[in-house]
Design brief:
41% of the residues lie in helices and 18% in strands. By secondary structure, the protein is α/β, with parallel strands linked by helices.
Length: 338
């Protein structure tokens, strides 16, 4: 394909510069419905999964953090994704952390970032989604967060405000309390705090499914307590996991994603599924880069998977390959084929 030829050029640029170029390109493509529909004819995979009234055309989604401002949903659909998670979006626009704040680790096929929830704000993103010329026929989720200048004691106000503004344009909403790049955010990953957050957001988003995204370091009894609190308060699904806390090449705290967290994320998925059983939507994300790692995440208990870092290394047609691989595997392991 074309991407192996483009990758050296993109990798010659700073990571965030290349990212912004990719987002601008996909945003432009997303505004051309005839082209997105034409490409989707070649990338689509029919391997549906239904949960809470939503039908996912296939099991592979785009993770939050790639399209923070909801500028390119149709382009992601055209690439073969079965769903997308936009954001993270905060109530008010914010610039995020100072640059540089994104780095590649090519030998380890990893990414480091300390973006800090840079986004256009809930009002702008909601207006943008309301004006879509073409809304692709797959679930669109929106990840919500708090502004960095909002103290944790008032976090539920921010999450509720963002949820209320964005829910009319979302098929599901995700509470993100697990980014390592907003100071103090992960302190909200307690049973007491999460019960309040989930309840506050649940109240304002109507019947939209509500998910919660956790850090890979949250485990054991603490994880179980938080899961129980979230599900009791009205969450119906979990995304596992966010990036792993790490140190950037500049010596500052950041998040690490990609191949190095593959095992850790899969372990959390397995742990969560064992605790919650069936009936809870579980989306596995972290280090998925090929059909083998996708299958292992599903075997660990994930209903759906998401990718981000591997998209940087493998290119825009990775989701179609993963979706088709999972479909072939499901057919080959079905009872009728045994």
């Amino acid at each position: 394909m074309l991407y192996p030829l483009l990758r050296p050029l993109l990798f010659s640029l700073k990571a965030e510069t290349a990212h912004n170029l990719a987002i601008r390109s996909t945003a432009l493509f997303s505004r051309m419905p005839p082209l997105t529909k034409f490409l989707h004819h070649f990338t689509r995979t029919h391997h549906p999964f239904t949960f809470a009234g939503l039908t996912f055309p296939n099991r592979v989604g785009l993770a939050g953090g790639m399209d923070k401002n909801g500028v390119a949903p149709a382009a992601w659909w055209a690439c073969g994704f079965g769903f997308v998670e936009l954001g993270t979006v905060t109530p008010r626009p914010q610039n995020g952390n100072d640059q540089p704040r994104m780095w590649r680790d090519v030998p380890r096929r990893a990414l480091f970032n300390r973006m800090g929830f840079n986004n256009d704000g809930a009002d702008v993103v909601a207006a943008r989604l309301a004006m879509l010329k073409f809304r692709p026929p797959f679930p669109i989720g929106i990840s919500i967060g708090k502004n960095k200048d909002t103290p944790n004691e008032r976090a539920e106000d921010d999450y509720a405000e963002a949820g209320e503004k964005l829910a009319p344009h979302a098929d599901f909403v995700t509470i993100n309390v697990s980014s390592p790049n907003t100071v103090g955010l992960r302190a909200l990953q307690t049973a007491e705090a999460m019960a309040k957050l989930v309840s506050a957001v649940r109240t304002v988003i109507g019947g939209k499914p509500l998910l919660v995204k956790f850090a890979p370091e949250l485990t054991g009894d603490e994880l179980k307590a938080v899961l129980d609190a979230c599900l009791t308060a009205g969450a119906v699904g979990v995304i596992a996991t966010n990036t792993k806390a790490a140190t950037s090449p500049t010596g500052l705290p950041c998040g690490e994603s990609g191949r190095p967290i593959q095992d850790l994320s899969r372990q959390r998925v397995e742990e969560i599924r064992k605790h919650v059983g069936g009936g809870v939507l579980l989306i596995g994300v972290g280090g998925i880069e090929d059909e083998k790692s996708a299958a292992r995440m599903v075997d660990a208990g994930a209903d759906l998977i998401q990718v981000y870092s591997a998209l940087v290394y493998e290119g825009p047609f990775l989701p179609a390959r993963l979706a088709r691989g999972l479909k072939r595997r499901a057919v080959n392991t079905s009872p009728d084929r045994r």
